[in-house]
Amino acid sequence: MAAWGLATGIAMVKVGVELLPALWMTFAVYSGTSQLAVLPLMAGGVGVTTLVLTALLANARFVVYSATLAPHLRRLPLAPRLATGFVSIDGPLAVLMARQRQGPMVQRVAYLWGANTATWLTWCASSVAGIALAAVLPYGPELGYLGVLALFGIALPLLAGRPAWAAAAASAAVAIATTGWPRGLGTLAAVIAGIAAALWAGRGSAR
Amino acid sequence: MSGYTTAELAALLIALVGVTLVARNVFLVLPRRWQPRGAFERALRAAPLAALVAITLPEILRDSVLAAPLAPLDWLRDPRLVSALVLVAVLRLTRRGVLALVAGSASFVMLLAWPS
Fold first, then answer.
1. Closest Cβ opposite residue A64 in set B20, B47, B52
2. What residue in B sits closest to A196 (Cα-Cα)?
3. Is the Cβ–Cβ distance between A32 and A4 less than 8 Å?
4. Calpha distance A16→A43 (Å, rounded)
5. Has the ipTM of the complex gone over 0.95?
6. B51–A64 CB contact, under 8 Å
């Protein structure tokens, strides 16, 4: 997450985003995927509507995440439910899924909040560091790759049971087949394929 | 930057927050009867794994398998692929995620610095 935030902070400054908008994106938008998707388009002066649609596409997998999260949060009042949804991203959600069968619901939600808080703070600190140090640090996709590697490390322990392996295999196949697709669309297709495969592989299992 | 007016930039920044908020909360505000249940709910537990695989795998394979499918020996010189394999190996041997990440990152940085 630190590498990801640092890379995004540097990228924002390198494409010419000024300080206040860059800080706003860091703290309030809180989406490396949509930020990195819209930044090159912003540099090219693309229209606001296209930028928003691009961000929507890049964020599409979070719609599926909200469905995943809904059963865990259904007893929370609206405001904390929305706040939890807003800050729940890939890593913390994967942590929650890994603890699926451990402890009561309230403990798991508390665990999710702990992971969310740590992730958000790391993201903000590293992104601000990237903004501050952009003039002296080189930017390359290599830096962002360390974030990819961290996400890969989070994914591996989730590979347990037939539905998980089926989901990973289907998602991998679709992700590779759709590498040329617009950013976010291929990921969404792969996630849907993964869920379909997990549904198929989990037939007949009660829980 | 690139000729955006202050109003356009403000609209964009607010819309981006709206996109994050809406995308991450769609199913959290729907009535319970619209929320996933049963086998579908169980299958949705695989969504984070599927997303992580979809995000990471094309990046890991970008400069090796996806770029040069006919030269498998060259794959072993690719920092992305090798670092991911190191991460998998260390995680499998030690079951320690942080150690695996450190080993994978170190191998990536070393291979990047290695003269080709």
1. B47
2. B43
3. yes
4. 7
5. no
6. yes
Q: Which residue has the tokens 């609209």?
A: B11
Within an 8 Å CB–CB cutoff, is residue B76 touching chain A?
no
Contacts of A97 in chain B (CB under 8 A): 45, 48-49
Tell me how far CA of residue B4 lies from CA of A19, A30, A48, B1, in angstroms: 15, 22, 9, 6
pTM attached to this predicted model: 0.75
Give domain limits for chain A. Answer: 2-50+92-158
- Flag if B108 and A145 touch (Cβ within 8 Å): yes
Q: Which single residue is written with the structure tokens 């995308």?
A: B23
- Per CB-CB distance under 8 Å, the chain B contacts of A145 are 59, 80, 108
Query: Which residue in this structure is represented by tokens 């929507």?
Result: A56
Per residue in A36-91, pLDDT (tens digit) is: 777 777 777 778 888 888 788 778 788 888 888 888 888 888 998 999 998 988 88
d(CA A75, CA A26): 30
